[in-house]
Amino acid sequence: MIDDPEAFLARLRKPTAAEQLAEREAAAAWVPELTTMPMPDFPYRWPHPLGGTARFSCPLGCGWYHDERPDLDAAAQPLVVPLDPDRIEDALTAQADARAEALCARVERAVADHFEQAHPGR
Ligand SMILES: [Zn+2]
Question: Which of 73, 79, 83, 116 gives the lowest tally of CB atoms within 10 Å of its CB?
């Protein structure tokens, strides 16, 4: 029962000190979700033949990893460059973005497959 609508609306707009405190505590207790896209390591140093390898390790630290070779990926795909010089940069950016997206998709797929096999339910 709302007997004073204006007071009620004022309470809706402005959280009480207790509500603000509860909100801050909830924010502090928040733990980020496990990401499916781990940060890569670069286990081999140039001029090692595998120098461009980006290694995505299991976020749970079980020792599993997925290697990607972005340097070979770039070389393997034909570069399509438009004749219009104003569009070259956009075309190169679009192709780099597409490669990055494909790499992310492969890594996320590999991590998801690994989780299904090694850490079901996580
Ligand atoms: Zn694992």
Answer: 83
